[in-house]
């Protein structure tokens, strides 16, 4: 299992009237396989998730993934930490589903024909067989989210960070993606408003107003959040 450390991390962003701190000093050691971040809109969950692969830099302090400093060893960290965005359009960059997955396989499969064949196998594994030639823009929300997740997992990350991966999905697809994420062998950090999904994780962090307000047993943290939403 991977090992994620936040050491006295803060995040500030420039605004028209000076810097604004959006994450107060936070120290965490995440070793559980499935970690959920819950909390109100604008509380800092995405900021916390994005720190884990350097999409957001720490203003002070350090983020370390499997011994690698995110600020200094960003490339190595990004190879390890796969990031799934809420909106698949943010990460589906190739014209067709097959080519998009193949892009993720470029390091492991140098030969183009082999790469495309491997991409088809990945699509089939995700229940997307027959989608190879489909335009990534013509997919439904659920199909797009599955494809985005397939593309990230094809890079064989040791940590998967998913930012509200089920928000755009109907009930069936939301369950499907949730089940898939929770069944992964890798460490998964998921930002979610789905408290059922959060309760099925091993550890839940309640983020509020830029700080971790509660951290621990999923049932207890989710119950606290429901009572004090
Ligand atoms: N680059 C930025 N510049 C200015 N403010 C920012 C920036 N990034 C985030 N913020 C602000 O920081 C706060 C936390 O944002 P963040 O996206 O982490 O919240 P969140 O908990 O993920 O919210 P949501 O549930 O709505 O997605 C928000 O008030 C947001 O507007």
Automatic annotation (TrEMBL):
InterPro entries: AAA+_ATPase, ABC_transporter-like_ATP-bd, ABC_transpr_CbiO/EcfA_su, ECF_ABC_transporter_ATP-bd, P-loop_NTPase. PROSITE patterns: ABC_TRANSPORTER_2. The keyword Nucleotidyltransferase does not apply. SMART domains: AAA (SM00382). This is Biotin transport system ATP-binding protein. One of its GO terms (molecular function) is ATP binding. The lineage of its organism: Bacteria, Bacillati, Actinomycetota, Actinomycetes, Propionibacteriales. The keyword Mitochondrion does not apply. GO terms for cellular component: ATP-binding cassette (ABC) transporter complex. Keywords: ATP-binding, Hydrolase, Nucleotide-binding, Transport. It is an enzyme of class 3 (hydrolase). Its EC number is 3.6.3.-. Residues 4-229 form the ABC transporter domain. Belongs to the ABC transporter superfamily. PANTHER family: ENERGY-COUPLING FACTOR TRANSPORTER ATP-BINDING PROTEIN ECFA1 (PTHR43553:SF24), HEAVY METAL TRANSPORTER (PTHR43553).
